[in-house]
Amino acid sequence: MQENRLRSGSLSFIEVLAAALALIGLSMTPVLIAPYMFGAAGNASWLAYVFGAVMLLLVAINLNHFAKRATGAGSMFLYAANELGPTLGGLAGWSLIWAYVFVGAANFGAQAVFLGQVGSAFGVSIPALAVMAALGLVCWLLAVRDIALSTIVMLVLESISVAIILYLVGVVLLHAGPHIDTAQLHLEGFGKASIGLGIATAIFSFVGFESATAFGAEASDPLRTIPRAVVWSVIIASAFFILAMYAEILGLRGLKPPLDQLTSPLWNLADAMNVGYLKIPIVVGAICSSFSVALACVNTCARIALPMAQSGIFPRKLAAIHPRFHTPHVALAATVVVMFAIGLSMYLARVAPIDIFNFCGTLSSLSFIAVYLLISIAAPRYLKRIGELRALDVVVAVLACICLIGTGITLFYPSPPPPTNWFPYLFVIYLIAGVVITRFKPHSIS
After folding, report:
1. Comparing C-alpha atoms, which of 211, 174, 114, 200 is closest to residue 410?
2. Cis check: omega of the bond before 419, within 30 degrees of 0
3. Closest to 184 (Cα-Cα) out of 329, 323, 287, 37
4. 219 bridge partner residues
5. How far apart are the first and last CA of the chain?
């Protein structure tokens, strides 16, 4: 019956691309992630983004082998389940849930940071807890009402934020004049930097490009729309990240404190370029970007939970579809509650909002690496099964696996400072619990 289905054909290519770019959250990298990237890779930060882009394009190629031939709600979970069996398929599903929940929770913390900055500028204190509660409520209301409306809102908000940042980048480049920053070109200090940790940080910047596959049941012409959105989201994001990171390092060079010690680097950059009037627009744009990321996470996570509930891994109630809006309203509500609970628990544990963003972002990166690895393993198996495997496909899959495993190792060794040093082990425990539930709970994963 129609009332029990998602609204098919409701999303165009632009809207699917908007959802992917919104979950990537282009603006969040120069606004909040840049200091961590510079602390990890220094003047090689742009190169870390180049390597990250190449690695994720390899993953995108593997992912698109599936997306060009079959699609549906929560596709990445189904791709892995169909090719790797119920245990590894369930592991992919659990990893995706973890990934989107923690990216969403990270932006609950980011929203508190940004609104706190606006409040400080006007001498008003805005409680972080109230910000997180309001964000969750608004995200749920928009997500339940209409997926197309949600993507339009995300596209508009992210476009505003990106436009403001690109204007500031243009100011920096004009101020520097027509020459290349030799410190970045020659990778000065590269011996002291960790390119591996930089690439791991880059993954946090890029995560979300694969989210287009979750909207297969709602995209128009999904076998063309989704593969295009997957590739173009990586291309657009990589170009923006490389340009913004280059300009940020260039514009803040020699200033005290250095970039890796700043909490509002674009504010410092605006002051350094004598365009302080951009500070409030920058933080307003960041609020827009953070909101669009949180909304995209809610939408995407619910569409991963939907097939997992339909298969019996999650409670069947999560598979309910709203009779009027044709959205997974119960899964959407559960997603928002979990995200808010994570943010709330960290806040009550006296974790600062900026660290909620940082810690949750680190936790999400682990799961994305796991999912990308599973997809890269599944792709050649799938092509072999349908009789279309080529030598080039094997090469691409192997290269992607090598890059992902190498990046994952950097999150375990060298050990980061507490409490992030135990994050990888927490994720492993979660995966073990997920595998146990998948294996021993009755389900219908083929």
Report:
1. 200
2. yes
3. 37
4. 11
5. 24
User: What's the rounded Cα separation, in Å, for the pair 406 and 425?
Assistant: 17
For residues 150 and 13, the answer to whether their CB atoms sit within 8 Å is no
Residue 229 in contact with residue 15, Cβ under 8 Å? no
Q: Where are the beta strands (DSSP E) in 289-352?
A: none
Instruction: Write the CB contacts of 118 (distance below 8 Å, at least 6 apart in sequence).
Output: 126, 280, 283, 284, 287
Contact 204, 9 (CB under 8 A): no
Residue 271, token pair as written in the block = 């002051």
CATH of domain 2-440: 1.20.1740.10
Amino acid at 347: Y
Q: Minimal CA–CA distance to 404: which of 260, 214, 206, 190? A: 206
The token pair that represents 109 in the structure block: 């913390």
Helix, strand, coil percentages in the chain from 3-state DSSP, rounded to 5: 80, 0, 20
- State the Cα–Cα distance between residues 305 and 143, nearest whole angstrom: 14
Tokens found for residue 183: 């410190």
| pLDDT tens track, the chain, 446 positions | 344 555 666 678 888 887 788 778 898 899 989 998 998 889 999 999 999 999 999 999 999 999 888 765 556 778 888 898 888 888 888 999 999 999 999 999 999 999 988 888 888 999 999 999 999 999 898 888 866 666 677 678 778 889 999 999 999 999 988 888 999 988 887 765 567 778 878 888 888 787 777 676 677 888 888 889 989 999 999 999 999 999 999 999 988 899 999 988 999 999 999 999 999 899 888 888 888 888 888 988 898 888 888 888 888 899 899 888 888 899 999 999 999 999 999 999 999 998 999 889 888 888 888 899 999 999 999 999 999 999 999 999 999 999 999 887 776 665 566 676 778 788 889 989 988 888 777 666 65
Structure tokens given for 138: 């608004």
Q: Residue 1: how many CB atoms within 10 A of its CB?
A: 6
Domain boundaries, given as residue ranges, for the chain: 2-440
Angle between helices 75-121 and 128-145 (to 10 degrees): 140
- CA angle in degrees (0–180, nearest 5) for 214-56-37: 110
Residue with tokens 């190629």: 61
Query: What is the number of alpha carbons within 13 Å of residue 337 lying toward its C-beta?
Result: 6
Tokens describing residue 46: 């742009």
